[in-house]
Design brief:
2 domains; 7-stranded mixed sheet; 4-stranded antiparallel sheet
Length: 243
């Protein structure tokens, strides 16, 4: 899945996203489970908002994304920052070894629409980590998908940008089909472009089983940036460690 034209307006659409919370959660989990860690791979980094924040905190960052357009936007935000940007698929990471921490936020794992791809991503990330390395990621909870996303319509109108977003049930249970239409001002006119994104919901027990099969030890499962364990919320967080 590539974000294509959406890369140019993505940050406008995501301006209220809790990037500071993702960065803070990462820092706290590292200090709790691997306090000497310095290197972080942001798998599915998008336009690099979390990547840059963690780099500013002193971590050594590598941003990985499947969209070259998103990576270009990310690099432009801090051309002098010592961040490595890689155009790769997280199911087949290459050249990354002995990484201390891999993060994957903003429902990147939900964009892996087949459970076999999820398992491949887990294995690829596991192989990239050093012993005791951390893997931290989030996904939409099944309750959130069923109660708040499927069947919903979202829209925003600004002076130079507007969009409408339909989220429909796919053919598979907990699959979401996101149909988005954008109108972006270009001089005196507005240009329309359309994108379709597919996401798949996975339950915490499913993900836990696949993580354990891969070899991970699950240290912590929480929701919505909470620091205590819970199995209820809109966004589920998994903190896993390679033995």
């Amino acid at each position: 899945m590539s974000y294509q034209q959406m890369a140019q307006v993505y940050d406008r659409l995501m301006r209220d996203a809790p990037y500071d919370h993702w960065a803070e959660f990462t820092d706290k989990m590292i200090k709790r489970f691997l306090p000497d860690a310095q290197s972080i791979v942001d798998a599915g980094c998008g336009t690099g908002e979390v990547t840059h924040r963690l780099n500013e905190e002193g971590y050594l960052l590598t941003g990985v994304d499947l969209s070259e357009d998103m990576l270009a936007v990310a690099q432009q935000k801090g051309p002098s920052a010592k961040i490595q940007w890689l155009h790769q698929d997280i199911t087949d990471l290459a050249g990354l070894k002995d990484v201390e921490c891999v993060i994957s936020y903003c429902d990147v794992i939900n964009y892996l629409s087949d459970h076999e791809d999820v398992i491949r991503a887990f294995r690829s990330i596991y192989e990239s980590l050093c012993p005791s390395g951390l893997f931290i990621f989030d996904v939409h909870s099944i309750d959130h998908i069923q109660d708040n996303l499927i069947g919903a319509t979202f829209a925003e109108v600004y002076d130079d940008l507007s969009y409408i977003w339909f989220c429909d049930q796919g053919e598979i249970e907990n699959r979401m089909i996101h149909d988005l239409t954008f109108f972006v001002q270009n001089g005196p006119n507005y240009e329309r472009f359309d994108e379709q994104h597919v996401q798949q919901g996975y339950s915490s027990p499913q993900l836990s089983e696949w993580l354990k099969q891969t070899g991970f030890k699950i240290q912590f499962i929480s929701a919505d940036f909470q620091m205590e364990e819970t199995d209820s919320g809109e966004r589920m967080f998994f903190v896993c460690q390679k033995p």
